[in-house]
Amino acid sequence: MNEAITQEQLAAAAEPSWGGGSEGAAVSKSQSSVLPTSKLPQRPPGLWRTGMSKFRRNPYAVAGLIVLLLFIGLTALAPYIAPYDPARIDLLLADAPPGTGNHLLGTDELGRDIWSRLLYSGRVSLSVGFAVAFVSVLIGTLVGSISGYFGGWIDVILMRFVDVMNAVPLLFLNILILAIFGSKFSYMILVLAFTSWMGVARLVRGTFLQLREMQYVEAARAIGVSNTGIIVRHLLRNATVPIIVTATLMVGGAILSESALSYLGLGIQAPATSWGLMLSNAQEFMLIDPLQALYPGLCILMVVLAVNFVGDGIRDALDPRKQRVVERRGWRAWSRFLRSKT
Amino acid sequence: MTEYLVRRFIQSLIVMFLISIVTFGLIHAAPGGPTQIFLSPGLSQEAAKVQAHNLGLDRPLPLQYVKWLGGLLQGDLGYTFKNHLPVGQILWPTVGHTMVLMGTSWLLSLLIAIPWGIYNSTKAYGWSDQTASFISYVGFAMPTFWFGILLQELFALKLNWLPLSDMWTIDKEGQLGDLLLHLILPVSVLTLGFLAGYVKYARTSMLEVLEQDYIRTARAKGVRESRVIYRHGLRNALIPIITIIGLDLPILVSGAALTENVFNWPGMGRLFVEMALAREYSVLMAITIVTAVLVVIGNFVADLLYALVDPRVQLGRKGGTAA
Amino acid sequence: MEPLLTIKDLTAGFATDNGTVKAIDCVSLSIDRGQTLCLVGESGSGKSVTSLAIMRLLEFAGGRILEGSIRLAGNELTEQTQRQMIRIRGNQMAMIFQEPMSALNPVFTVGDQIAESIRLHQRKRKSEAKVMAVDLLRMVGIPDPETRARQYPHELSGGMCQRVVIAIALACRPELLIADEPTTALDVTVQAQLLDLLQQLQRELGMSMLLITHDMGIAARMADQIAVMYAGVVVEMGSVEALFDQPAHPYTVGLMQSVPSMEGERLSELHTIQGHVPALHAIPAGCRFHPRCPRAMPRCTSEAPPMMAVGPQQQAACWLYDDRASGFAAAPDWDNGEAER
Q: How far is CA B123 from CA B117, B130, B203, C14, in A?
């Protein structure tokens, strides 16, 4: 497993072992002791291994992971397990209660099977979620790395841009762009990614700024590692953990945004289906079948909750610097995200 | 401090300027764009061309932008495509409606969340804290509009205690009591959403402060614990909280687009969605600009508050002087 | 005369997932009026825990006093409630800490923070307290104290902040000042100034001081008595002359040797004590130091040595001195049965 080179390890490799006190093994000049000397401490277990065991011990994280995998599995297999085509209209069997015929959860006002629609919607929502997170991370990492590593003018301009993006109410922006350019699936992913990369960029830039000053980068340079070498090897590896955590949490945000947009009618359009779209439908026919609104929302809730638990779990397991810094920064993201949901 | 504020003010202006450019650019990039906004409907191609020329739509873009910006600053927001109504006439009433809804929810959530969060920080992991934590997690993950729909189904449909939607019952417009009834459900939805974040943040902020060295110094001085927490600690914890509040000010108007839709509340958010679906670009542009301006003002107010509250910013000089 | 502070068999620790872990075990010390006791040891030796325990601040850091007695001027501190301790802290005894810049509250002026101490314990009016605060700033050597009193901590340098911290601590003329590494975070030159200031103030106020440090040089300069701590226990105690002249416990010897010296030949390596300080939950059996001790004997692995007299002004917890202990009386105020062993 690749581990980030710790400062101690690099320093230990670079200097003769004088040691002194605490952890390192210092060999004393006079070996006249009766008792055995302390052994050299073993290389501590890697970050990933300790992280995995910590994660396993976190009940919420594990539960979240199971639920998430369940959803992914079910929705991925939708074409095989869904009893009906989600767009199949059957007016004879409209508004059927759960259990009628082969309809596990009943049908909606057009006779479409709700269970099948849920499954296919899941495919859409989950793919949007992960795609957005992926693209966001790409954009954000790129911007953040450039900004953080080179600093100066580039940094100032890019960060002003981030500020502007943060200032704009994102839901409005999403709606605006989709209204102007249309609601194609790919557009939606791009738009959502375009309004959520800022967090990652800030994060990556911050990590770069911190690490750039750290001594082991100087040490690496002294040994003769090139600039790109430094970036890729040392810095990115250390930024990886917070990026993973942010990306995971972003999946939930993207799913919520997509369902909001679809609910409003600007996201996924019929005949495709999405949980948000199902909810808008359900509200329209609230008087006839109030239960319909329950299922899609519950799905969203469970998936996002699961993703959040997993993300928190990863963070608790892998990030030694722990929550405080992340939570403070996290407020900005939460606040914006909240606004985009209201 | 003045130097700091002036700097922030200029930055705000630049940001607003940039936003106007971006908005203008977006609208003109729209398929079927500017002609829709400014021309009267139903003209023949010939007449359209003439009118376009008269309105300056065939002039180079930068000039058009300047003209538009000029009009904007004088309060001319353009006209709708359908019915050729002045945008301002449609827009301004909705702003007030949104502020009523958002203002109530936001204030309510702050009044509950901040004391609760601070209390939770003093009794971390107690049952109050666990409850708040639970609400936070659920609030984070739950689609608020779904929650709104469920509330509607329960309280309006099933129990018939509260009205289903809208701001007023048809013949009772303007009556406070009716307004309050209509407010209850949407405010509940919005307050819960805000609450989740604010409680967590207040708690975190306070906890962080309570771990600082100066708290230990206060105890070592012989200050009693309640004073340590509520005087020495709170004063510091409030700084980030207040800044966050400032940053969220724009929410008052940037709207609860989703919630307004769920409850059919005649506010700016609902208007925005309606106009987006109808591809009424002039209105969309106007709302975007108005919102952006308010956001920038809000951020500026946040900076102002922050400068007032944190002595480290107040006095322009930074850092220590000679020993 | 009875010592101002007497600590006997103080044991304190923290609650962890694996039960209560003792951070200090059977620590016994005493400080006479007007005297300075330096508590010396590496990080993790328990010096800070001891000081926090004395101030009864340990509870706020998640710890507890498990056993033992702390008597300050005849008052048993372990039996006081926090409400009672509030009247003692900052009043009869005071404490200053390591990081001066973060020790002061950033949102209150320096003068306010000093005045608060005065108003809490001396019931003075706001205006009077303000004046007294300015006087205190003058006393600790801050120039232009009237202006400084109205400033915020971030406007002061590290050395100045620490002077303010001292001013706060001394505002009510405490009988005992506990200083936990007060100069560690400061420049060497500032260190010297502050230590001088502390000594001067101590003389003027007739105050006792418990000075915690890991720096033997500071101990040599400031101490009347030194107590050396290792892994939660006191391993040696005595007058500064005795300890520096003839360190008894092998750990103390190691510490003395570790101080780089300007005299003598240039060694190729700095002297170190091999091994490392044991973790709190993995304390070695018998004498805690034995895995690192160049003079360890089989007895050391199974029996923990009690404090034994090594000289007229010196005691050490080491089996090396066992045969010398018999018949020799320990320090007169102590009530212990160890002299009989």
A: 10, 10, 10, 19
Residue C25 vs residues A229, A247, B239, C65, C80: alpha-carbon distances, Å:
51, 48, 42, 10, 21
Q: Name the pLDDT band for C177 (thresholds 50, 70, 90).
A: very high
- Residue B75 to residue B86: CA distance in whole angstroms: 11
Domain residues for A316?
A: 44-325
Please choose, from the candidates B197, B176, B174, B194, the residue with its C-alpha nearest in 3D space to the C-alpha of residue B186. Answer: B194
Q: What is the mean pLDDT of residues C321-327?
A: 59
pLDDT higher at C211 or C340: C211
- Cα–Cα distance for residue pair C45/C277, rounded to 1 Å: 8
- Tell me how far the alpha carbon of residue C201 is from its chain's centroid: 17
Query: Closest Cα to residue B64, out of B14, B25, B31?
Result: B25
Q: Residues near C198 by Cβ (< 8 Å), separated by ≥ 6?
A: C166, C177, C179, C182, C209, C211, C222
- Is the ipTM, as predicted for this complex, more than 0.90? no
Report CA C254 to chain centroid distance, whole Å. Answer: 20
* Sign of the alpha-carbon torsion through B183, B185, B190, B192: positive
Chain C: which residues have CB within 8 Å of chain A? 42-43, 269-277, 290-294, 296-297
Q: Does A180 touch chain C (CB under 8 A)?
A: no
d(CA A23, CA A42): 11
Q: What is the pLDDT of residue B157?
A: 82
Best mutation target among C251, C269, C302 (most A Cβ atoms within 10 Å) is C269
Q: Which residues pair with B306 in a beta bridge?
A: none
| pTM for the structure as a whole | 0.78
| Continuous H helices in chain A | 7-14, 47-56, 59-76, 78-81, 114-150, 152-167, 170-181, 185-194, 198-213, 215-223, 227-229, 237-264, 275-284, 294-318, 323-341
Residue A308 confidence (pLDDT): 93
Q: Does C156 touch chain B (CB under 8 A)?
A: yes
Closest to B262 in 3D by CA, of A187, A283, C23, C314 = A283
Q: Which residue is listed with tokens 């073993």?
A: A42
Sign of CA dihedral B305, B311, B312, B318: positive
Residue C34 contacts B, CB cutoff 8 Å? no
Q: What is the pLDDT of residues B20-67, one digit of tens each?
A: 787 777 777 766 555 555 555 566 667 666 766 666 666 677 777 777
* Sign of the CA dihedral with B87 first, then B88, B91, and B94 last: negative
Residue burial A154-176, b: 16+ Cβ < 10 Å; e: rest: ebeebbeebebbbbbbbbbbbbb
- The CA distance from A279 to A287, in Å, is 14
CATH number at residue A199: 1.10.3720.10
Set of chain B residues whose Cβ sits within 8 Å of the Cβ of C97: 213, 216-217, 220
Q: How many domains does chain A have?
A: 1
* Residue of chain C whose Cα is closest to the Cα of B322: C157
Where exactly are the structural domains of chain C?
Answer: 100-173, 243-261+270-340
Whether residue C274 and residue A37 make contact (CB cut-off 8 A), yes or no, is yes
Kindly identify which residue of chain B lies nearest to residue A168, measuring between CA atoms.
Answer: B292
Length of chain C: 341
Residue A341 maps to a domain:
no
Rounded to the nearest angstrom, the gap between the alpha carbon of residue A89 and the centroid of all alpha carbons in its chain is 36
**Is A202 within a domain?**
yes
Q: Which residues pair with C238 in a beta bridge?
A: C226, C314
Task: Provide the mean pLDDT of chain C.
Answer: 87
**Angstrom distance (rounded) from CA B15 to CA B294:** 12
- Nearest alpha carbon to residue B12 among A331, A329, A160, A159: A160
**Inside any domain, residue A206:** yes
Residue A175 lies in a domain: yes
